[in-house]
Amino acid sequence: MSRRVTPEEIVWMNQLYNQYNTYAAVAHIVERFAQPVARYIKLQGAPTIVKHISKGVFRQV
Q: In 42-52, which positions are buried (b, 16+ CB within 10 angstroms) versus exposed (e)?
């Protein structure tokens, strides 16, 4: 069973994506597949609670 993506990982993925600009590079660093990384960076298909939490976190940054 795969491990769940934590809110801290979502923030980390977004920071890495801003730096490297590719989902593959971020996926390699966080040791996940590129598809879930892209999902959580774009927030498309992500659970509603994740979208809600992420909006609050990204506003603070």
A: ebeebeeebee
Closest CA to 58 of 18, 28, 2: 18
Single-letter code of the amino acid located at 25: A
Per-residue pLDDT of the chain (61 residues; tens, 9 = 90+): 467 888 888 889 989 999 999 999 999 999 999 998 998 888 776 777 776 666 666 555 4
Find the helix packing angle between 7-20 and 48-60, rounded to 10°: 60
- Global pTM reads 0.72
